[in-house]
Design a protein that fits this description.
0% strand, Growth Hormone, Chain: A
């Protein structure tokens, strides 16, 4: 379809049912991930108090440890999931990921000790991580160039929806007593039902099917019959990403920005509910109620931020949009955590902070699939998205240690927030891919 024909119609009228189904599947998968992740953030303190009451003297450090271990597992699972998706298909891996994290989330509700909870969180993190790269690749490969960024933003907003739903559920479940955290994790079993619909209704990517066929045909031929390009095509996907000079450069740039986004969010913004709850407690109000309210408000802003980034990237380009989100996050971090002391105003600022600090995650499903050819897309995108967690898992630990030492959230958030400057410096070196077709080998 020509550019003139595309511009003459509303973008959504040019899409078919299979494209929408793929988007719904990826969005719901990410929504379930979001629910499970934010359920941990909201309930970690309560679980910690029941499973390990001896840690009550320094809860921030131990909560940071729980989150960090989940994040570390997410990184391992994400990279493995991306590689497997390039060999066995987007749809199959998405189905497997949803099933596994439903199982391990349910088992987390049955944890009998602090140690068992940590192990189950690690396994849940591994299952969680394997979903994103497959869903992102599936949507990018099925949606047309003129609407690809919009689809990525709509897919990524599932995380914010999951966070919002978790906050809303915790508002009603928290008062149910010391086992309330177990009830939250039991709700995480429900996504397994969605896997049945995914298996029957969501199509496989034709781009991936073609890439798989080409790989199989090349491997069936004798090595001396293959050109250097063909031999390179059949190598292990992660090796191709790391050895091709162009792809290696894009991977390094993407990984730096991914680390900025991930380190800052996990090290700073995960503390928003606890921070608002502590302010409420000082005013003699319910910390649990205000923490859940702050979570809902923050994630309402994030949902708008996710979607807006995709539309802005299609309108103004990837570079300018991502730079804006990094810059605004840099400013909003001290505004929320350090310079604002009125509880009502802090709640209002949670909307703006969520729009940029969590909403900026959409740059990855928007931009990363446009860096890599089809036979490497899930591997490359998943590596960049998830490898950052091997560094970013230190964020909750660092923030927890700073909070424990200084006795407040403001300084920890402001110090870690300076990492956004690095993201702003890297963005100009990335290629502008607005409106381009996905690359092929």
């Amino acid at each position: 379809m020509s550019d003139t024909e595309v511009k003459s119609q509303s973008w959504y009228r040019l899409l078919d049912r299979s494209q929408w189904r793929a988007l719904v599947a990826a969005n719901l998968g990410w929504l379930f991930d979001g629910f499970e992740t934010y359920a941990l953030i909201l309930t970690a303190g309560v679980a910690l108090h029941q499973l390990a009451p001896h840690t009550d003297t320094q809860p921030a450090f131990y909560i940071g440890l729980i989150i960090a271990l989940t994040l570390f597992g997410w990184g391992v699972g994400g990279i493995l999931g991306g590689i497997i998706a390039d060999y066995f298909g987007r749809r199959k891996v998405l189905l497997l990921a949803i099933t596994l994290y439903s199982v391990f989330t349910g088992l987390s509700a049955l944890a009998w000790s602090w140690e068992s909870f940590l192990v189950l969180r690690l396994l849940t993190g591994i299952a969680l991580g394997s979903e994103w790269g497959t869903g992102t690749s599936l949507v990018a490969e099925l949606w047309p160039a003129h609407a690809r960024a919009k689809a990525a933003g709509l897919m990524q907003c599932g995380l914010g929806l999951g966070f919002f739903i978790a906050s809303a559920c915790w508002h009603f479940i928290a008062p149910l007593g010391e086992n309330s955290w177990r009830y939250m994790f039991l709700l995480g079993v429900l996504p397994a039902l969605f896997a049945l619909w995914l298996r029957r209704k969501v199509p496989e990517s034709e781009r991936w099917t073609s890439a798989k066929k080409r790989r199989s045909e090349l491997r069936a031929r004798a090595a001396d019959e293959l050109s250097e390009k063909d031999r390179f095509y059949t190598r292990f996907t992660l090796r191709q990403v790391m050895t091709d000079p162009k792809l290696r450069k894009l991977t390094i740039l993407g990984s730096i920005m991914s680390t900025v986004t991930t380190l800052a969010w996990w090290g700073i913004s995960t503390w928003v509910p606890a921070y608002v709850g502590s302010m409420a407690a000082e005013d003699g109000r319910s910390p649990e109620s205000y923490a859940s309210t702050a979570g809902m408000i923050y994630n309402a802003g994030a949902i708008a931020g996710y979607i807006s980034l995709g539309f802005l990237a299609d309108r103004f380009g990837r570079k300018g949009t991502v730079f804006l989100y990094f810059a605004a996050s840099l400013v909003m971090t001290p505004v929320l955590f350090l310079w604002t002391h009125d509880l009502g105003l802090v709640l209002a600022l949670c909307v703006v902070n969520g729009f940029f600090t969590l909403g900026q995650y959409s740059w990855m499903p928007v931009w990363l699939p446009e860096f890599y050819p089809t036979h490497l897309r899930a591997t490359g995108a998943a590596f960049v998205f998830n490898a950052a967690r091997f560094i970013a898992f230190l964020g909750p630990l660092t923030a927890g240690a700073i909070i424990a030492q200084l006795g407040g959230y403001g300084y920890a958030a402001t110090v870690l927030g300076l990492v956004y400057v690095i993201g702003m410096l890297v963005v100009p070196f990335c290629p502008e891919t607005k409106g381009r077709q996905l690359p092929e080998a």
